[in-house]
User: What shape does this take?
Amino acid sequence: MYKDGQPGEIFIKMAKEGSTLSGIMDAFALSVSISLQYGVPMRALVDKFVNARFEPSGYTGNPDIRYAKSIVDYIGRWLGGKFISPDYLDHEGAAAEADVTPPANAAGGKSPASVTVMKAADPDPSTRPRAAIDDAPYCSECGMLMTPNGSCYKCTNCGSTSGCS
Assistant: This one.
């Protein structure tokens, strides 16, 4: 963490050392760390991670994030809940622990993973709440999760719609 309380680096230990999943998660943590060190806002990163859907997914051991759509979704929601707003969690109250358990079936259910964030920041009071639409489609233009707009969906990132005018 930096002296101002902003996160600057994350570390993820997952699966067996040398496994493909471990290598990918190390690269992911390195990418996030470099992004934070070069000034990418935490909200921009977290909003891209939240609602990423791929396997493994499932129920977690964390009562603040009961279900994760992927490991990346889990990490994004945990980071968002800790550093941005409790709105990223399943219910009110931020997670107090620094070590986090990912989806139960991650890495074939063999090895627990942990996320260690090296510094904490005070939540920014000017942050906007995120849309919690679990079954909304992804934008065909930019890939962000769309939000309801009448009987259609609209992308809050690029402004495209799901076919409505």
